[in-house]
Hints:
With 205 residues, this protein is mainly beta.
Amino acid sequence: MANPAFETVDPPYTAFRFEVVLNLDDPPPGVTNPACHAAFAECDGLEMSIEPKMIRSGGDNQRQQHFIGPTSYSQLTLKRGMTANLDLWNWFLATTQTGRVSTAQGQVTLWDADGTPRITFMLEDCLPVKMRAPALNAKDGQVAIEEMQLVYASLDVKPAGSSMNASIGFGVTAGFSASASLSVSGGPGLSGSLDASASAGLNIG
């Protein structure tokens, strides 16, 4: 007889089905709506950590007490196939202007094998901190990959479809519901085999 405990375990999700949505708070000039139509080959940096504070009680040499310290977050790294759409570059350049803070609210949604959104990582106040052009080599015939790195103020994880809090104010969508939004997707359009026509998982739109 099958163990009923195993029947309640949800199957794990595959890493290649994901979707990234960035919603600009104050879109700079030159960033159109929609700002970007491209698929990311990689998304890394959904990470948070807590620095513990350790103290010892006087006279107790066999125990140590731990207290919660500040929470820190990693940098989100996005890699996509280089396209003629320069909106991501224009967003980065706009943040370098004095007096302008062009933040974005982000969502990274993970899809299951059936193409249903399941888990959403919610990122607040994203700022681009690095743009890197692809490495060029005349001997290679690979897709040119550009890289973008973002910092974010906080990270939360919720079931897909859950509404974000009022300070963010947008839901999980694959398109653009705001007047100025940037939507990039690496999920539903990707096949399980990452077919060659998409060039290593890229689905450029």
